[in-house]
Design a protein that fits this description.
With 122 residues, the chain is an alpha+beta fold. The protein is built from four helices and six strands. Helices cover 34% and strands 26% of the residues. Strands 3-2-1-4-5-6 form a six-stranded antiparallel sheet. Strand 5 and strand 6 form a beta hairpin. Helix 1 crosses helix 2.
Length: 122
């Protein structure tokens, strides 16, 4: 078993308010983090390396003890809770665009539409 850290986008109430008032495109025009989040719905093996700005959009939300990336994804969505240590109260279910870092090797992978893609991260 290995310890993994899960990183998710830092979205605040101002961004959500813009989505409700301006729609997805309007919020994307105003907030680069929202535009980036919308791009996460089409993550595939051709995804470009993350920029420093995009890396800054993320924060660690939990650590998970798991066998592999698939196990991290499963535990992050359905448990068991005893394998999860929460680092914040703002974690949502795991989905496309989330980043999983193997704490032993430092290797980072982004949850893709199907599977995972290695990414540069910190």
């Amino acid at each position: 078993m290995t310890v993994y850290t899960v990183h998710q986008l830092k979205l605040n109430d101002e961004v959500y308010k813009a989505v409700n008032e301006l729609g997805h495109q309007g919020a994307s025009d105003k907030f680069p983090i929202w535009a980036f989040k919308m791009d996460m719905f089409i993550v595939d093996e051709n995804f470009s390396p993350l920029t420093d700005e995009q890396i800054g959009f993320y924060h660690p939300v939990c650590t998970i003890i798991a066998k592999d990336l698939e196990d991290v994804f499963r535990i992050g969505n359905i448990g068991p809770e005893e394998n999860i240590t929460y680092l914040t109260n703002r974690m949502h279910s795991m989905s496309g665009g989330d980043i999983i870092v193997n704490n032993k090797t430092g290797e980072a992978n982004m949850v893709a539409s199907i599977g995972f893609n290695k990414v540069n991260f910190k």
